Amino acid sequence: MFSDWRNDLSSNNGVSIVPFHWGHAMMAELRPMDKEYFDTVPNYVGLLKSYAENDMSCTAMVGGKIACCFGVVQYWPGMAEGWMLTTDKVATHPVSLTRGALRYFNKVATILQLKRLQMVVDCDNSFAMNWVNALKFTREGVMRNYGPNGNDYVMYARYFNGSYSQNSKSSPA
């Protein structure tokens, strides 16, 4: 089901989307804030392995190198949380990767019939804060001392109506 449209996520010939394997995160030259999770989140490799079992998890490649790994975890029908790990390669193709991520989240919302898709972002990660805004997520609030190091995080969400078209600026009914 998912693999049929994975190739439609990128319109740039230099960017390809492949199924996520937990080893991709180990091989990637992650940004420092993303690499930190290996040291601060208990059993992070186990978490990555669980992401890899999910058909919705992907890795974006630029010129054969890992740019980012991403996916969603559905918590219950209609609600899921997104995750993403990035490398500096994201900066080499920002428009293509952002458009591809938008297509991904819209497609996942349709497949999973989501009403809500949320992401939590470390307040100190300015790159991620800017990108989640570019991905049309709405800031909901600060979660104090949320992170594994006691960092503050911000909860962001996108809302989808019954026709599964994105409606990011309105509140849920």
State the helix count.
7
CATH topology, by name, is Aminopeptidase
What is the mean pLDDT? 87
The neighbouring-strand order within the major sheet is 1-2-3-4-5-7-6
User: According to CATH, what is the class?
Assistant: Alpha Beta
CATH homologous superfamily placement:
Gcn5-related N-acetyltransferase (GNAT)
What is the CATH architecture term? 3-Layer(aba) Sandwich
The 3D shape can be described as globular
Coarse structural class? alpha+beta
Unreliable runs, pLDDT <50, ≥5 residues? 164-173
Order of helices and strands: HEHHHHEEEHEHEE
Helix content, binned percent: 25-40%
3D structure, described in words:
It is a single chain. With 173 residues, this protein is of the alpha+beta class. It has one domain: Aminopeptidase (3-Layer(aba) Sandwich). The protein has seven helices and seven strands, in the order αβααααβββαβαββ. The chain has helices at 3-6, 22-27, 32-35, 37-40, 44-52, 94-112, 126-134, and strands at residues 15-19, 58-62, 65-76, 79-86, 116-122, 138-143, 153-159. The protein has a seven-stranded mixed sheet. Strand 2 (58-62) and strand 3 (65-76) form a beta hairpin. The radius of gyration is 15 Å and the shape is globular. The two termini are 30 Å apart.
